[in-house]
Amino acid sequence: MTRWLSLLLFLTACGSDDDMASGGTGGTSGTGGASGGSSGTATMTDGPAFGDTHSGNFWLGPVDYTETQYHNACAPSVKYPAGIRALYGTYIMGLANEVVVQGLKASAGQLCDACVELDANGATVIAHAVTYGQETGPNDIDVSPEAYASLMEGDASHSGTWQLVACPTTEPIQYTFDGREWSNVYFFRVWPRNARLPVTKLEYQLGAGSWSAAELQSDGAWQASGSDFSGGFSVRLTALDGQTLEDRLPGLNTFDPDVGISSSANFE
């Protein structure tokens, strides 16, 4: 079902962050900003699972937002934005390069920000996939210290099961942009974060023109160039199950790219 949405400015609820610019000025201010997250609390999914259940080792990467040892492959060069960190909480993880779920390849960035249900030792948490890379096995994963503590406390085997699921978020999708070429209004890279289901296509439209497909990059960003985006443009997202969602975004270089723009809805 296609839904036309009015856009709201994505107001983060987590205050300042060393890696983030503060405050955004673009879009229409209102509700719908980031709030809460799943930090420290095991949570069950309320949405459908997809793909197979996998058994593997759960390693303490560590996977963390500050990238103490490894860069998160789904993050921009300035790391995950503070507002997205608040939405996702501290249960985050990394997949192996070899993972393919319903045709979506981790190594191509197609599973960036997907939700994964992790089960071990009678505990269950939902973690966001924020990175991918070389693992000890195709079904082995790396997890954050918080997820590891919830699942692996006192377990020397490190074994568990995982499966992709719909994200149990009640917040809207958040569009954050790559700010490295922000003054170039003929080029953008955007991440549609916090989607309940993986996004399989992003298209854009200028005015009443035709829809054009953006190109997915290996870090999960969708890239487009060659048109003047300074006056605003529309985007259309397609989810893994075929749902579509359309938004009207303000012009490039009129808001903070890291703070981004919030849609007023999400996939069902």
Which short descriptors sum up this protein?
268 residues, Immunoglobulin-like, mainly beta, disordered N terminus, six-stranded mixed barrel, 6% helix, 2 helices, Barwin-like endoglucanases, 2 domains
Structure write-up:
With 268 residues, the protein is mostly beta strands. It folds into two domains: 4-34 and 170-262, Expansin, cellulose-binding-like domain (Immunoglobulin-like, Sandwich); 49-165, RlpA-like domain (Barwin-like endoglucanases). The chain contains two helices and 19 strands. It has helices spanning 82-88, 145-152; strands at 4-5, 8-9, 49-60, 92-96, 100-101, 104-105, 115-120, 123-133, 141-143, 159-165, 174-177, 187-193, 199-205, 212-213, 215-216, 222-225, 233-239, 244-249, 261-262. A six-stranded antiparallel beta sheet has the order 2-19-11-12-16-15, with no helix packed on it. It has a six-stranded mixed beta barrel with strand order 3-9-4-8-7-10. The radius of gyration is 18 Å and the shape is elongated. 48% of the residues are buried.
